């Protein structure tokens, strides 16, 4: 999600500083979440800055390069496997159990595609 503009943030701060308006009413007036107004006001009080916070540290990748190579091999050999199957096989090979969505992100990171076998998923 894209951060709210500094212009909108300034309008919220200005409206709050004029007084006699609750945070809830501010949120309704500017069509933003109450939690956003609360965090913005807290940030403004503590730092005097209203600019969006810049994410400085990326979440580290869950798998090592060796584990990614194993996942690559699994996907290439079993390109119609489900994400659950891939995560279980990866856990058996590496001892690392990751979530289904993480498997999906890692497969995308490897620029691999999976073929879906529709016969496998038909209901009986």
Q: Calculate the terminal CA-CA distance, rounded to whole Å.
A: 40 Å
Order of helices and strands: HHHHHH
Fraction of residues in H or I helices: 55-70%
Structural class: mainly alpha
Task: Detail the topology: elements first, then pairings.
Blueprint: H1 6-17, H2 23-30, H3 34-47, H4 65-77, H5 83-94, H6 100-109
Helix pairs in contact: 1-2, 2-3, 4-5, 5-6
Summarize this structure as a short list of keywords or feature phrases.
124 residues; mainly alpha; 6 helices; 56% helix; elongated
Protein architecture, described:
This protein has 124 residues and is mostly helical. Helix content is 56%, strand content 0%. The chain contains six helices and no strands. It has helices at 6-17, 23-30, 34-47, 65-77, 83-94, 100-109. Helix 2 (23-30) packs across helix 3 (34-47), helix 4 (65-77) crosses helix 5 (83-94) and helix 5 crosses helix 6. The chain starts with 5 loop residues before the first helix and ends in a 15-residue tail after the last helix. The mean pLDDT is 88.
